[in-house]
Design goal:
Elements (H helix, E strand, L loop, with lengths): L1 E6 L1 H7 L3 E5 L6 H11 L1 H4 L6 E4 L2 E3 L11 E4 L6
Parallel strand pairs: 1-5
Antiparallel strand pairs: 1-2, 3-4, 3-5
Length: 81
């Protein structure tokens, strides 16, 4: 299935894009999405253990099943002062 991942802050900078179009197996989970990103987009691998994912505007865990209709966002930690 094809999904669109929206990237923010440092994730967007590392990927050099605000969205990524990804091909995942039907019924893939957020955990599988993390694994796919680490393998296919190595620039993101270092931050992936620290990012949160939101699906349809709600934070989710790695067990959440995805569908092509989902709005998926990758939200890295924020720092500043």
């Amino acid at each position: 299935m094809n999904v669109t991942l929206h990237l923010f802050a440092v994730a967007r900078e590392l990927a050099q894009s605000d969205t990524l179009e990804l091909e995942l197996p039907e019924g893939a989970t957020v955990g599988q999405l993390r694994e796919h990103l680490a393998a296919e987009h190595p620039a993101l691998a270092e931050i992936l253990p620290h990012v949160l994912f939101a699906v349809d505007s709600e934070y989710v865990d790695n067990e959440r099943t995805l569908s092509p209709e989902c709005q998926i966002a990758c939200i890295p930690p924020v720092s500043g002062g």
